[in-house]
């Protein structure tokens, strides 16, 4: 629709409608992630997909795990992380693997994922992951490089191995696409018996981990 020659009230109505649609989408996603959408059915994945994830993330046989495809700029990812973290603290035998899945709509998500891999390569994954995920630093390239420098880490560009890190982020994204991941956060639960389930609620983690 062309708005150039429309009355002001029509333009305002269109803007309001677009904002309302966006809010409704995000609210629905939040509801599912937080467990208030608990009626959403879990999806059982194939044994082949389970084996792909075990190999990709070096998860041992009979090791229960939570694999989260996430995006550092994803509001539902950030909001749900405290509950995922609490679950992991209550279940120390469960391993957690974050799979970078930067969405194209998020301008800085890819560079943030690169920064997390740089930290991981230097033994600082947990601290940097937490800081990036909880907003303790901005995610634009200048802020990321300043943050990395504070921890004596190389910048996201010009580190000499940045192509390797960027390739790893792209590979993680391609893995998600191979598994038909389309949004974040996507939580996959790998039970001790090897059953892989995509859960739609954090409350459901307990139901499918054993």
Textual characterization of the structure:
By secondary structure, the chain is α+β, with helices and mostly antiparallel strands. Strands 1-5-4-2-3 form a five-stranded mixed beta sheet. β2, α3 and β3 form a beta-alpha-beta unit. The radius of gyration is 19 Å and the shape is globular. About 12% of the residues have low confidence.
Structural class: alpha+beta
Helical percentage: 40-55%
> Helix tally?
8
Mean pLDDT: 85
Shape: globular
Q: Detail the poorly predicted runs.
A: 13-32, 34-38
Largest sheet descriptor: 5 strands, mixed
Question: N-to-C SSE series?
Answer: HEHEHEHHHHEEH
Order of strands across the biggest sheet? 1-5-4-2-3
Rg (CA only)? 19 Å
Number of DSSP E strands:
5
Distance between the termini: 52 Å
Strand content: 5-15%
Fold blueprint:
Layout: H1 8-34, E1 43-44, H2 47-56, E2 65-70, H3 75-90, E3 95-100, H4 109-121, H5 125-133, H6 141-150, H7 162-178, E4 186-190, E5 196-199, H8 205-208
Parallel strand pairs: 2-3
Antiparallel strand pairs: 1-5, 2-4, 4-5
What's this entry about, in short?
This protein is 50% helix and 11% strand. The protein is of the alpha+beta class and 210 residues long.
Keyphrases for this structure?
single chain; 210 residues; alpha+beta; five-stranded mixed beta sheet; 8 helices; 5 strands; 50% helix; 11% strand; globular
């Amino acid at each position: 629709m062309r708005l150039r020659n429309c009355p002001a009230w029509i333009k305002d109505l269109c803007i309001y409608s677009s904002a309302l649609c966006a809010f409704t989408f995000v609210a629905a996603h939040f509801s599912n992630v937080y467990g208030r959408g608990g009626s959403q059915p879990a999806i059982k994945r194939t044994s082949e997909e389970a084996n792909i994830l075990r190999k990709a993330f070096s998860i041992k046989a009979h090791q229960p795990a939570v694999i989260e495809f996430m995006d550092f700029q994803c509001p539902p990812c950030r909001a749900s992380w405290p509950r995922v973290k609490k679950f992991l603290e209550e279940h120390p035998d469960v391993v957690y693997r974050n799979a970078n899945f930067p969405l194209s709509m998020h301008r800085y998500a890819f560079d943030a994922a690169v920064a997390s891999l740089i930290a991981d390569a230097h033994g600082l994954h947990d601290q940097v992951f937490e800081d990036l995920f909880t907003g303790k630093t901005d995610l634009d390239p200048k802020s990321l490089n300043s943050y990395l420098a504070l921890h004596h880490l190389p910048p996201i560009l010009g580190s000499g191995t940045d192509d390797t890190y960027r390739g790893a982020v792209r590979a993680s994204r391609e893995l998600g696409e191979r598994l038909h991941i389309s949004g974040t956060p996507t939580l996959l639960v790998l039970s001790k018996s090897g059953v892989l389930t995509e859960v739609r609620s954090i409350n459901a983690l307990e139901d499918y981990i054993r």
